[in-house]
Structure formats: structure tokens, C-alpha cells
Amino acid sequence: MRKPIIAGNWKLHKTVDESVDLANQLKAALADVKNVEIIVAPVFTALTAVAQAVNGSSIEVAAQNCYPAVSGAFTGEVSPSLLKNAGCNSIIVGHSERRQLFNESNAFINAKIKAIHAAGARAIFCIGETLTERESGRMFDVLKRQINEGLVGLDAEAMGGVVVAYEPVWAIGTGKVASNEQAQEAHAFVRGVLSELFATEVAAATRILYGGSVKPDNVDGLMAMPDVDGALVGGASLKAEDFARIVRFQQG
Ligand code: 13P
């Protein structure tokens, strides 16, 4: 069985104090949750403080980005090993905002995933099609290419440290969530591609999260889909009450 993951991507929001405050609220609100992995991804400057705040709880901390090197002359960048050292077990890579605003390629994302694996951390690997790609019938090709190129050179063992997040670009920050059926269709396709690339058992064990306008009032339907193993939440992860309700999604 795949244990569900509910992850909050706080993007470029909140000061250190505000981040710690939200983390403390979540720690109190979710102390009894056992059957869901809970992850929060604050800005870099708040990582250590949030990691300390959630210490002793089941909430884990993720970074939103990294650079694929251990150390060196890379002004302004942060390596997976330093993020681990700061208290992060997971690192988000390939988010559509980074692909679109910072021109990140599948090859660069692949290098990051390899560096994350080498550092012993977990990659939350985001993929997803734009509205134009979907409407012109290229969605499956785009997803397949993002997966094949993003995961090239990884083996089954490394896949144990990869979580995939399907985030259709048209659903991110738009309030326009994918329907349960659209999410299921994409997730089943992604699992099929993973199965071809690795093995059926690897595909069956990989968690595939849905992201894009997940809210307290739509999470239950999405989580009822057989191939939706969790959610990567943006806007609704910034409010403790909303995120806590998403973590406590109702099954069936
Ligand atoms: P929203 O939930 O705000 O649409 O953002 C989704 C997202 O990008 C999570 O990584």
C-alpha cells in the first residue's frame, strides 16, 4: 500500500516568524495523524527554524529547490546535502514555476534528482502540461518526455527516493482544479510510463501526488481516485485550518 503524502508548498510566502507560527499551529492540529505523511516546504531562510519547530512531530520539512552540486563556486545556490543538514528530508524539483520562470530543462531537473539521491534525500519531482499542450492533444507526450528525461539514469533503488507530483500548469493558482477523472487519467498514465521505464513493482510503489488548486472542498474526491496518492498544495497550505483539513481528507 502507498502511504498518502500531503505536502504544502509555501512558495515565496512568510517570514521566519510567520513560518514558525504556521508550523506550530500544524504541529498542534495534526499531532494525532498517523496514516498520512505530512510535509511543509517553507522558503530557504525559514527552513532551519521550521525544522526545529516541528522536531518531535510527524511533520517533515522540504526545500523548494536545490542546485545539483555538493559545494563549490556557485554563488547563490544551495546543495541537497546542505538542505539535509538544515533539516530537510525532501526537496521539490521541476516545479512548473521554475520550468517557466527560470527556464529549467528536463536535463537540469534530472541532474538535481541525481544530486538529491546522492545526498540521501527524497525528490518531489513535479511534472505537468500547460493548457495549450492539453488542448492540442500533446499532454501525454509532454508528460512522458518530462518523466523519461527527468528520470534518465536512475534505477529502481533510486526511485525509492522519488515522489512524483502531477501538477497541470492550468490548475496551479487558478482555482481551476482538475476533475477527479482528469487527475486519475493523468496519474494512471504516469504510473504506466514508470512501469515501462522501471518495473511494475516500482511503479506500483511510487507515490504520485496531485497539485493544482487543491482545497478542503475538493481534496476528498481527488483522494478517492485509485492512482492519486496525495496532494501538493499551494495557496491552501498557507492557512493552518485549510491545510489541516486537507491532511484529514475523508476516504470513501
Ligand atoms: P495552488 O494549490 O495554489 O494551485 O498551487 C499548487 C502548486 O503549485 C503546489 O506546488
What does the model show?
This protein has 252 residues and is an alpha/beta fold. The chain folds into 2 domains: 8-29 and 36-64; 68-209, Aldolase class I (TIM Barrel). It is 42% helix and 15% strand. Helix 1 (16-29) runs parallel beside helix 2, helix 5 (106-118) crosses helix 7 (139-150) and helix 7 crosses helix 9 (180-197). The model has no long low-confidence stretch (mean pLDDT 97). It binds 1,3-dihydroxyacetonephosphate (13P). Residues 9, 95, 167, 172-173, 211-214, 232-236 line the site of 1,3-dihydroxyacetonephosphate (13P). The site of 1,3-dihydroxyacetonephosphate (13P) has 14 residues, from strand 8.
Question: Span between N and C termini?
Answer: 16 Å
Number of helices: 12
Assign the CATH class of the largest domain. Alpha Beta
Number of domains: 2
Structural Rg: 17 Å
> Going by CATH, what is the homologous superfamily of the largest domain?
Aldolase class I
Heterogens: 1,3-dihydroxyacetonephosphate
Do you know the CATH architecture of the largest domain?
A: Alpha-Beta Barrel
Mean pLDDT: 97
Topology as a string of helices (H) and strands (E): EHEHEHEHHEHHHEHHEHEH
Count of DSSP strands: 8
Form type:
globular
> How is the biggest beta sheet arranged?
8 strands, parallel, barrel
CATH fold category name of the largest domain: TIM Barrel
User: Which percent bin holds the helix content?
Assistant: 40-55%
